TrEMBL record, chain B:
InterPro entries: Asn/Gln-tRNA_amidoTrfase_suB/E, Asn/Gln-tRNA_Trfase_suB/E_cat, Asn/Gln_amidotransferase, Asn/Gln_tRNA_amidoTrase-B-like, GatB, GatB_C_1, GatB_Yqey_C_2, Gln-tRNA_amidoTrfase_suB_CS
Protein known as: Aspartyl/glutamyl-tRNA(Asn/Gln) amidotransferase subunit B
Reaction equation(s) it catalyzes: L-aspartyl-tRNA(Asn) + L-glutamine + ATP + H2O = L-asparaginyl-tRNA(Asn) + L-glutamate + ADP + phosphate + 2 H(+); L-glutamyl-tRNA(Gln) + L-glutamine + ATP + H2O = L-glutaminyl-tRNA(Gln) + L-glutamate + ADP + phosphate + H(+)
Pfam family, one: GatB_N
Domain of life per record: Bacteria
UniProt source species: Eiseniibacteriota bacterium
Function in brief: Allows the formation of correctly charged Asn-tRNA(Asn) or Gln-tRNA(Gln) through the transamidation of misacylated Asp-tRNA(Asn) or Glu-tRNA(Gln) in organisms which lack either or both of asparaginyl-tRNA or glutaminyl-tRNA synthetases. The reaction takes place in the presence of glutamine and ATP through an activated phospho-Asp-tRNA(Asn) or phospho-Glu-tRNA(Gln).
EC numbers on record: 6.3.5.-
Description of how the protein assembles with itself and partners: Heterotrimer of A, B and C subunits.
Automatic annotation (TrEMBL), chain C:
Family per record: Belongs to the GatC family.
Biological function: Allows the formation of correctly charged Asn-tRNA(Asn) or Gln-tRNA(Gln) through the transamidation of misacylated Asp-tRNA(Asn) or Glu-tRNA(Gln) in organisms which lack either or both of asparaginyl-tRNA or glutaminyl-tRNA synthetases. The reaction takes place in the presence of glutamine and ATP through an activated phospho-Asp-tRNA(Asn) or phospho-Glu-tRNA(Gln).
UniProt cross-references to InterPro entries, sorted A to Z: Asp/Glu-ADT_sf_sub_c, GatC
SUPFAM superfamilies assigned: Glu-tRNAGln amidotransferase C subunit
EC nos: 6.3.5.-
Quaternary context: Heterotrimer of A, B and C subunits.
GO BP terms in the entry: glutaminyl-tRNAGln biosynthesis via transamidation; regulation of translational fidelity; translation
Top-level class of the enzyme under EC nomenclature: ligase
Keywords: ATP-binding, Ligase, Nucleotide-binding, Protein biosynthesis, Transferase
Reactions accelerated catalytically: L-glutamyl-tRNA(Gln) + L-glutamine + ATP + H2O = L-glutaminyl-tRNA(Gln) + L-glutamate + ADP + phosphate + H(+); L-aspartyl-tRNA(Asn) + L-glutamine + ATP + H2O = L-asparaginyl-tRNA(Asn) + L-glutamate + ADP + phosphate + 2 H(+)
GO molecular function terms noted in the UniProt entry: asparaginyl-tRNA synthase (glutamine-hydrolyzing) activity; ATP binding; glutaminyl-tRNA synthase (glutamine-hydrolyzing) activity; transferase activity
Name of this chain's protein: Aspartyl/glutamyl-tRNA(Asn/Gln) amidotransferase subunit C
Length: 490, 483, 99
């Protein structure tokens, strides 16, 4: 491994060095591509990249808190004038968005450089990044395993150092779970705090743009730059977003929920070990543990797979070969639709469209979609009740560590159940933070999840930071701010 | 067999807002194809809708003036179906919680006041336009233009309370008038600003149950609506009379050939899979907003019509013509307000002013600019008092509508003040009597009507400036003196 | 809850998807399995639970101001799979007219 001294440094440090003139914006961006030279061939985190485009973007980056800092963004975020936006799907092959997503606009305005579009499960439907039309992304910590999904590309890229920051999207866990599998931080904000304008919609009432970084402070900075109301997205909250500037304040006086009933069964020992270690760290840092039972996640999964698929079946109707995307040869409009869509969508997407169409169809709407939306209210109330007893909850991210490629692709239900701990936050619209906690004995990253009430991002970041500084690999020294061992290329 | 027709209408009013329903694209007509579009109304990936307040305001105005109940919390819904002019393959509309419910449109039909009840009014977005059949090279295609996609529409659904096609025609005329009266739409059926689909079924007279209904689309004019319904009622009656059953169907009406064609077969029956639009909040219309809109509603046309009949003593026919547009009735009221008798003002507006408006293809607004109401009042006053003759008044109108200008100035410039002094007129009278011995003899022989002819001759000689009453008196005097 | 082949085809038609003959049974099985799982919702007490709406009700509405930030026709048509001058082209739309 080359001794590129920028690998793993926080984005804030990188930006400061660029601002001081220690290196140019182009050098900052290319330092990540040196890491890619080692890793990308195996990991395949990138869907689209272009050296000339990023060099120009670096050279012309405006002054701002992130000037010169490379960011990898998931391929379902619209970027205009530089890279295609294809959502990992054949049905958008070659599509170039004529406008920037709002979060992309804000990122560029802060001086950040879009260094690549990240690989993803097609239309964000998946938990392993095995369902991309470009082929799977692999976990840098073990190339026989998945990086998680659907934002596996950005997670893996941030893990191996292509960029210190990444944007993904989280509808049922698609930022938090790959963050956990790849050993980086992953934040799903409160619903409505980051604009969805320009995020290709999957489950409109569940989707949020999410943030990847290796360092808690970077998550806080990125959040503060991107969060806030957007007149182009009527689902954003009008009030100013929560202030995360005190992310390093510590957790003294805070309490965390400990719903142990959720992981007594069906969860790998390493996952439980990570939870125990995290709880101990938080207590040492001055937080108080509050034990109680919580509603099992199976209900959340069932609710999610009706609501998300219903919304998706409608959101994906626009992909029809009429205005953009490849068109199958046809002599009538019916065939145009059926052939273009059938050839363009992969099997998982088709499965979910069918499920969602069914859930909404005449005669079934009450029994499925409406019932699911009621169950969702019930689930929200469960979270509200829990947060009446604690400031945030400590949960697993997933029942397992990163699983092997091909392990769950033939059993859709098994794949869906891997979201059992993350889905609830999307249904309730509350924020969730995946916090990396070193490596298991097998060399795979471990992580825990923190969830809190709406607008509790400041609390979650404080707790995440507390875990970061007390992480079991803190022996590397805080001054280097690289707590986590780099993936070892075998 | 006797049959009673049961007809319901579903009307769409295209609103004249400046921007579209869910995006900032101009909602204007006539731009070059696919130039008033953006990611939202083109249905590009990642785009999101944002509601146009003016469209809701227009719906509130219409709903309040028709006496609807306004729902404080209404919901947008997605109606899912595939069609090439649908950018998202779903339409954002309102389904089970529409903005307005109930209400009725008062209509005068054959001098009788009627009222046709509504079920609901809601807001939705329009589709793009597809043109077919077309060809490119030797291949058949359809062309699609998305300029219209996303333009705001109000959908208004009536109760099935119509029994005759004429009632539907009167309803649509009233609705068109109202849309223009409120200035929420241009209401032009030929341009598609006002569209109408009709549902019709037959049943035995006096029955309370409903027969199978068919839907008729492509009714592009009020006449077309009446004729299409007449044709379909006849068709259904024939089927029933022959012992057959009515099949549910959607029919297209071809106005040029007065024919109906079945549009869709049942196998493409739509399951729209309505669900609440997750990208938009519930639409909250609080009491304050409702009262604010109510406070600026204009007097509705039917109330004005009634007022003209009851308080101004005008015939219903006159009131209807005067109230055809808000501009016209505002104008009429301004003329009355300037001191003119209502019946006279009504006559002048209906005959003289409208004649010029129609002959010159002026808009009523333009007409009012050329001949402001106060000026017309003055002109009427001058004619009534005899200061100018009615022939001169017509001259004045001709000039003012042609070139503009103040009537008084025209009267002065052309020397139109009527000549009414006997000294001036007597010579002319005597000339005419001398030149027309035949008619004189006829008059003296008892044919009173020739007096009119003789008056006319004097008027001609005076270039229309002689005061007709004076002329008549002088003629009688002279004729009487001829012994 | 079981979905059979005919149901799969009906839903596929609604969604404008074609499921290859050999895949219909598999799809039916997979969908049925998910629906069986989803039946767990019947165990929840949903007595006083109204359907969720995630969007804050007091969201402000947009002023009726046309904005020049729309796309040029070129940009709008740039990704068109088939176009002729300023129009999108599609195969002919047939209204299924039977005179």
């Amino acid at each position: 491994m080359s001794a590129n001294r920028w690998w793993g440094r926080p984005a804030t440090t990188l930006a400061a060095c660029v601002a001081r003139g220690e290196l140019s914006a182009e050098q900052a961006v290319e330092s990540g591509w040196e890491a890619a030279a080692t890793w990308e061939g195996d990991v395949h985190a990138v869907a689209h990249a272009d050296a000339t485009v990023r060099a120009t973007a670096a050279r012309t980056a405006p002054p701002g808190p992130l000037r010169g800092v490379p960011v990898i963004v998931k391929d379902n975020l619209c970027t205009a004038g530089d890279y295609p936006t294809t959502c990992g799907s054949r049905i958008l092959a070659g599509y170039r968005a004529p406008y920037d997503a709002t979060v992309i606009r804000r990122l560029r305005a802060a001086g950040a450089v879009l260094t690549a579009k990240g690989n993803m499960d097609e239309f964000a439907m998946g938990s392993s990044t095995e369902f991309s039309c470009y082929g799977p992304t692999r976990n840098p910590y073990d190339l026989t395993r998945v990086p998680g999904g659907s934002s596996g590309g950005p997670a893996a890229a941030v893990a191996y150092g292509l960029a210190p920051l990444g944007l993904g999207s989280d509808t049922g866990g698609s930022v938090r779970q790959p963050a956990a599998f790849c050993g980086v931080f992953g934040l799903k904000p409160t619903y409505g705090r980051l604009s969805r304008y320009g995020l290709v919609a999957f489950g409109s009432s569940l989707d949020q743009v999410g943030l990847f970084a290796r360092h808690a402070g970077d998550v806080a900075l990125l959040y503060s730059l991107l969060a806030g109301p957007d007149l182009r997205d009527a689902t954003t909250r009008a009030s100013p977003p929560p202030d995360v500037s005190a992310w390093d304040r510590g957790v003294k006086g805070l309490s965390f929920g400990w719903p142990e009933n959720l992981w007594r069964e069906g969860v790998e020992p390493e996952v439980v070990a990570a939870l125990e270690a995290a709880a101990a760290s938080l207590e040492r840092a001055g937080a108080r543990r509050v034990a109680f039972d919580f509603l099992p996640g199976t209900y959340a999964v069932a609710t999610y797979y009706l609501v998300a698929t219903a919304e998706a079946s409608s959101n994906l109707a626009r992909f029809d070969g009429v205005r953009y995307g490849p068109r199958a040869p046809s002599t009538d409009v019916w065939s145009l639709y059926v052939r273009s869509r059938s050839q363009g969508f992969g099997p998982e997407v088709k499965r979910r469209i069918l499920l969602g169409t069914y859930a909404l169809s005449a005669g079934y709407y009450d029994a499925f979609y409406l019932k699911a939306q009621r169950a969702r209210t019930r689930i929200r109330r469960e979270y509200q009740a829990a947060f009446g007893r604690c400031d945030f909850m400590l949960l697993p991210v997933a029942p397992t560590l990163a699983f092997r490629l091909g392990e769950k692709t033939t059993d859709p239900l098994a794949m869906y159940l891997s979201d059992i701990f993350t889905i609830g936050a999307n249904l309730a619209g509350i924020p969730g933070l995946a916090v990396p906690l070193g490596l298991a004995g097998s060399g795979l990253p471990r992580a825990v999840q923190l969830v809190g009430p709406e607008d509790s991002e400041p609390t979650l970041l404080r707790a995440g930071r507390a875990l970061e500084v007390r992480g079991e690999v803190a022996r590397l020294g805080r001054e280097h701010e690289t707590e986590f061992p780099w993936p070892m290329k075998r | 067999m006797a049959h009673e027709a049961v007809i319901g209408l579903e009307c769409h009013i295209q609103l004249a807002t400046r921007s579209k329903m869910f995006c900032e694209c101009p909602a204007e007509f006539g731009a070059s194809p696919n130039s008033n579009v953006c990611p939202v109304c083109l249905g590009l990936p990642g785009a999101l809708p944002v509601v146009n307040r003016a469209a809701i305001d227009a719906a509130l105005q219409l709903g309040l003036v028709l006496g609807c109940t306004i729902r404080e919390a209404s919901v947008f819904a997605r109606k899912n179906y595939f069609y090439p002019d649908m950018p998202k393959n779903y339409q954002i509309t309102q389904y089970d919680r529409p903005l307005c419910e109930g209400g009725a449109l008062p209509v005068r039909l054959c001098e009788t006041a009627r009222s046709f009840p509504l079920i609901r009014i809601h807001v939705e977005e329009d589709t793009g336009k597809s043109f077919h059949p077309e060809r490119t090279g030797d291949r058949p295609v359809s062309r699609v233009d998305f300029n219209r996609a996303g333009v705001p529409l109000l959908e208004l659904v009536t109760e099935p309370a119509f029994r005759q096609p004429e009632e539907c025609g009167a309803f649509l005329a009233g609705l068109r008038r109202l849309a223009r009266w409120l200035k929420i739409s241009d209401g032009d059926m030929e341009k598609g600003h006002l569209r109408c689909d009709a549902n019709v079924s037959l049943r035995p007279p006096g029955s309370a149950s409903l027969g199978t209904k068919t839907e008729i689309k492509n009714l592009n004019s009020i006449k077309g609506v009446e004729k299409g319904l007449t044709a379909e009622i006849a068709r259904q009656a024939a089927v029933l009379d022959a012992g057959g059953r009515i099949e549910q169907a959607t029919l297209l009406y071809d106005a040029d050939h007065d024919k109906l064609a079945v549009m869709r077969s049942k196998e493409y029956a739509h399951d729209y899979r309505y669900f609440p639009e997750p990208d938009l909040p519930q639409l909250t219309v609080d009491a304050a907003w409702v009262e604010e809109v109510r406070g600026r509603l204009p007097e509705p046309p039917w109330t004005r019509e009634d007022r003209y009949v009851d308080h101004l003593g005008l015939p219903a026919y006159d009131a209807a013509i005067l109230c055809e547009t808000r501009e016209r009735s505002d104008y009429f009221e301004a003329v009355v307000g300037a001191g003119t008798d209502a019946k006279r003002a009504s006559n002048w507006v209906m005959t003289e002013v409208l004649r010029h408006v129609n002959a010159r293809g002026l808009s009523e607004r333009e007409a009012a600019l050329r001949l402001p109401a106060k000026s017309l009042a003055v002109l009427i006053g001058a004619t009534e008092s005899g200061r100018i003759t009615s022939a001169s008044a017509k001259e004045v109108l001709e000039e003012v509508f042609e070139k503009g200008g103040d009537p008084e100035a025209v009267i002065a410039a052309r020397g139109l003040v009527a000549r009414s002094s006997p000294e001036e007129l007597l010579p002319l009278v005597r000339e005419v009597l001398a030149e027309n011995p035949g008619p004189v003899a006829q008059f003296r022989g008892g044919k009173q009507a020739t007096l009119g002819f003789l008056v006319g001759q004097v008027m001609k000689k005076s270039g229309g400036r002689a005061a007709p009453q004076v002329v008549q008196e002088l003629l009688r005097a002279e004729l009487g003196a001829l012994r | 809850m079981s979905i059979d082949r005919d149901e799969v085809r009906r839903i596929a038609d609604l969604a404008r998807l074609e499921i290859a003959g050999g895949d219909v049974d598999r799809m039916a099985k997979e969908l049925s399995a998910v629906l069986d799982f989803v039946a767990a919702l019947n165990e929840l007490d949903l007595a006083d639970c109204e359907p969720t709406s995630m969007v804050p009700a007091a969201a402000s509405l947009r002023d009726d101001e046309p904005d020049g930030r729309r796309l040029t026709s070129e940009a709008a048509l740039a990704a068109a799979p088939e176009r002729e001058r300023d129009f999108f082209l599609v195969p002919p739309v047939v209204e299924n007219v039977n005179p």
